[in-house]
Amino acid sequence: MTPHISVVVPMYNEQDVLPLFVQRLRPVLDGLGVAYEVVAVDDGSADQTPVLLQRFLREWPQLRVVRLRANSGHQAAISAGLSNARGDWIATIDADLQDPPEVLGEMLTVGEAQQADVVYGVRTDRSTDSAFKRSTARGFYTLMRAIGGSGLRMDAGDFRLMSRATVDAVNALPEHHRVLRLVIPTLGFPEAEVGYRRDHRAAGTSKYPLHKMLKLTLDSVTGFSLAPLRLATWFGMGGFVLAAALLAYAVISKIAGNPISGWTSTVVIVAGFAALQLLCLGILGEYVGRIYATQQARPTYYVAYDSLLAAPPERRPVADEPAAPARATADVPGPRG
Ligand code: UDP
Ligand code: MG
């Protein structure tokens, strides 16, 4: 039977929070009164997460575990969950209880009542995040709005409910390193929102160190906007105007009888423009790199284990349902041509 709702949970080294998470999620889902599945995507955890998941698997029939071969990152883990989830509705939620599972029921009600394809969880209060997290998040959204337009929702992260049609559309996108919170609004499907209060991480530590945040920002900027490429054009125009002004100044000084001497000014100008050129080249390189990665069409993750395929036949999907692919799957549909 197709589950009415699939709940996709990316988790990386979440042994501390996992028991608490299961304890809170399960009663909520059992209480919905509909068929559901939980797709726990173990993003290559190196701690006890896979062991705990195996234990929960035995006592929770609706749980399904998809383990990735290596740590592939939050977005790739969600993508893996989305391409394996079978529900009519698919929710994504973090494992650390910052997104309260109790809100899932409300999301489902709102999605069905308003016939929305996407129901965003919108943070009404971030006071529980650290000052650093809040300021980096604010910087991220301000930057993205500045270059990408106002369609972006402030403070909607990856806690959301999506219809089957939305997830099919996302799964069909060929884009690599996609940032789902930016990609999904651009689909333009009917949307709704549910406010919630973002809690403290219930246990364990953040799995988002600075370098992962920077990567997310870079993926977001290059995946969402061509504005940085135009920087080179603006720099070039500015440089031209500046050079013309300097030339005029030099000629006038010469005519006035005091030619400019100076090594410093020459070196500063040459070095300054060389740096700007390198910056522009670097920006160009980011985009070329994305084209390269898309061209190679390498999967952003590999599935090492799927409990559904390891399960006895009665727990597998029935024949007329599309079975999950047995082998490694990409969040891109193979090499296209
Ligand atoms: N996560 C993941 N792979 C990673 C990093 C994080 O699957 O490489 C998961 C993590 O287990 C959690 C969610 O993504 O369920 C959000 O991570 P975290 O709570 O550490 O991020 P923060 O809330 O600090 O931004
Ligand atoms: Mg968190």
Automatic annotation (TrEMBL):
It is a multi-pass membrane protein. It holds the Pfam family Glycos_transf_2. This is Glycosyltransferase family 2 protein. It comes from the Bacteria. It comes from Luteipulveratus flavus. Keywords: Glycosyltransferase, Membrane, Transferase, Transmembrane, Transmembrane helix. It is found in: Membrane. Residues 315-337 are annotated as: Disordered. Belongs to the glycosyltransferase 2 family. Residues 320-337 have a biased composition (Low complexity). The chain crosses the membrane at residues 231-252, 264-288. Signal peptide: none annotated. Residues 6-166 form the Glycosyltransferase 2-like domain.
